Automatic annotation (TrEMBL):
PANTHER family registered for this protein in UniProt: BETA-KETOACYL SYNTHASE FAMILY PROTEIN-RELATED, OMEGA-3 POLYUNSATURATED FATTY ACID SYNTHASE PFAB-RELATED
SMART domains: PKS_AT
Cited SUPFAM superfamilies: FabD/lysophospholipase-like, Probable ACP-binding domain of malonyl-CoA ACP transacylase, Thiolase-like
UniProt KW keywords: Acyltransferase, Transferase
Alphabetized Pfam families for the sequence: Acyl_transf_1 (PF00698), KAsynt_C_assoc (PF16197)
InterPro entries: Ac_transferase_dom_sf (IPR001227), Acyl_transferase_dom (IPR014043), Acyl_Trfase/lysoPLipase (IPR016035), Malonyl_transacylase_ACP-bd (IPR016036), PKS-FAS_Synthase (IPR052568), PKS_assoc (IPR032821), Thiolase-like (IPR016039)
Protein name as annotated: Acyltransferase domain-containing protein
Organism name: Streptomyces caledonius
Domain Malonyl-CoA:ACP transacylase (MAT): 161-382
């Protein structure tokens, strides 16, 4: 696309006598006989003072790869060549030398289960040659040229992380369900807090069923915000039918929330906490990592914290949703869901669920749960997510 030049209302008359023309609205950039090239300026008061010339990549338009089910090692590969662009060549071996030997064969075929692995999407002769060079080099390669290589088996365990509330939540589920001949989850596609919560929970539970069907099994479960509750349901800590009954009882507009705003900050929670000095209606709600945190509170106080940190060179931005989750200000609103949660039968799960509050697995015996399992898990379980 050709982007428009902003605020250009009266171009200079002499511009008409040149090969240049102003673009006043975004328009398609039609392909011609020569590659499309663009000059991008960054001359301004910011001090960057740079210019870059971009050229479109060769063969920029390629047919999209089809959505494929899990192709295990050992499955036969299609013949190498242009017709195989939708296929994936997967080879494993005990050593890089063994992997190189299999790639050097006249017609490499998927198979093998060694710790050294290479994957080539659409294995053309050019991509196979690149794969051979990558394997010979012996260092991990992460997808450039549609080639993936790891010199050693990927370690660790598999964790499923369930999503929480997002300001714009448009999960891609219908085509996945269609490919796997499954019934898609019932999504409201609504914009209210309850509707987005229901959709996030339904999506997480759907993929918890889909991934094992593709041969991807979880060792542990975790969740972001109310996604932690979805993880508990997926682990069997709540019976599926009881969870369905509870979710079906929720209606848009039923849940009242405080009129509070959030802001994402480009600093850790400790520095964010220091910036709250003198303000009593804003708190650090999320300790995401060493360089990112989220605050929540009354709009004026949140804006004041963002301004303080910007003055110190820390970026911050208000987020486009309001609820007050993960803050003490949500406490007066817990009664709306506490009784419903308390009626849900609770049992030990089939998989460990890690709490974002304690950074440890949930207890295995109900007698140790205490009020942890009450409705506070809805609002406080990931106060340190």
């Amino acid at each position: 696309m050709l982007p428009p030049t902003l605020h250009l209302e009266e171009p200079h008359a002499d511009l008409a006598r040149t090969r240049m023309r102003p673009v006043t609205a975004a328009e398609p950039w039609e392909r011609g006989p020569a590659p499309r090239r663009a000059g991008v300026n960054a001359f301004g008061f910011g001090g960057i003072n740079a210019h870059v010339v971009l050229e479109e990549a060769p063969a920029a338009v390629r047919p999209p790869l089809p959505v494929r089910r899990f192709l295990p090692l050992g499955a036969p590969a299609a013949p190498v060549g242009p017709a195989a662009r939708g296929d994936v060549l997967l080879i494993g071996a005990d050593t890089t030398a063994g992997l190189s030997a299999r790639l050097a064969s006249a017609s490499p075929v998927s198979g093998g289960d060694g710790p050294c692995r290479v994957a080539v999407v659409g294995p053309t002769p050019q991509r196979l040659a690149l794969a051979a060079k990558v394997v010979a080099r012996g260092r991990a390669w992460r997808g450039r040229g549609d080639v993936w290589f790891t010199p050693e088996r990927l370690g660790g365990r598999v964790a499923f992380l369930f999503p929480g509330l997002e300001p714009e939540f448009a999960p891609v589920v219908d085509d996945v369900a269609r490919r796997l001949a499954l019934a898609p989850p019932r999504l409201t596609r609504g914009a209210s807090l309850v509707e987005r919560a229901l959709d996030a929970l339904a999506t997480g539970r759907f993929f918890a069923r889909v991934l094992p069907a593709l041969g991807i099994e979880a060792d542990v479960l975790a969740g972001h915000s109310l996604g932690e509750w979805a993880a508990m349901v997926a682990a069997g800590m709540y019976p599926q039918e009881a969870a369905d009954t509870f979710l079906d009882s929720l209606r848009p507009g039923d849940l009242r929330v405080p009129d509070l705003v959030y802001a994402a900050l480009g600093c850790g929670a400790q520095r964010a906490e220091a910036a709250l000095h003198g303000l009593d209606r804003v708190v650090v709600s999320h300790d995401n990592c060493t360089h990112q945190s989220v605050i929540c509170g009354e709009p004026e106080q949140v804006a004041a914290v963002v301004a303080r940190l910007r003055g110190d060179g820390v970026m911050g931005q208000e987020l486009p949703f309001r609820s007050g989750f993960h803050t003490p200000m949500w406490e007066p609103y817990l009664g709306q869901v506490r009784a419903a949660f308390d009626r849900l039968p609770l049992r030990a799960g089939s998989l460990p669920v890690w709490s974002a509050t304690t950074c440890a697995p949930f207890p295995s015996a109900r007698r140790t749960y205490g009020t942890w399992w009450s409705a506070t898990s809805w609002s406080r379980s990931v106060s340190a997510s």
